[in-house]
Amino acid sequence: MKCALITNPKKYEVQQVLQQTLVWAQDKEVHCYIDEQTAESLNVIETGGLHFCQGDTAAIEASDLLIVIGGDGTLLNAARLARGLEKPILGINSGRLGFMNDVSIEEMHSALDALIEQNYTLDYRHFLQAIDQKGQIYYALNECLFTRRDSSSMINIDAEYDEDLINTYWSDGLIVASPTGSTAYNLSAGGPIVMPGSGVLVVTPVNPHTLTTRPLVLSSDKELRISIPESDPSVIFSCDGVVQHVSEYPFSICIKKSSSRIPLIHLNNHSYFDTLRKKLMWGQDSRRS
After folding, report:
1. Catalytic choice (72, 102, 123, 240)
2. 234 CB neighbour count, 10 Å cutoff
3. Catalytic-residue membership of 72
4. pLDDT by residue (tens digit) across 87-127?
């Protein structure tokens, strides 16, 4: 078995988890591939079965599956790099929340053994695909975000679904989230939690000026068009936190579910609702012990 080890040494306390993973790999005779700069910053020494690569992309291409150590941001970055390859991803959480990286440090050894035994299922998560008026294609696993740059003024955003006007949003921004991203920024902005695989996208305004403007759930099979008027070039467009360069206004972009997907490794003793309760304290009632 060949595993790519993906982590962000500058952001998370990953060294101990990475070292334990390398010990496991050597004991199980598993070949591991890691970016040489990451290895150098974490003082990892090249040994038998461990291979240094020129970047994370090269490590991913050489592997059968990915082991991502860190938080959800690290997993999102790995997903971007692995898009189109459909290589299974196991997320080990060494950050704070780790909703997608849902394997805890205490569970990591049993989770790693499950890789050898193939004692897991694959949870396929689709990307959102956004195409602008010039034909440029963007991808997001969590959300596409339209927000203001450096202004205290609200922004105007037009939204159409299947060529039918939904609304002109007057707000601090607008989130278009996938089911995977429903528990990220969308949830913080008051949007609903959506079960992965539901085939929908969620449109959630950020601090809308009108009380009647509420989140909207739409089928992801049809196009949602977001338009920014020429009079408001202060809007930032980003995908999973990565700001995209907008060269001209008015700016228009169509969003729907992409055929691109990533397979997350799902341990047989884990469930989505267990993760909601443990990570987000969902449904917790302080009146009950």
Report:
1. 72
2. 14
3. yes
4. 999 999 886 667 788 788 888 899 999 999 999 999 999 99
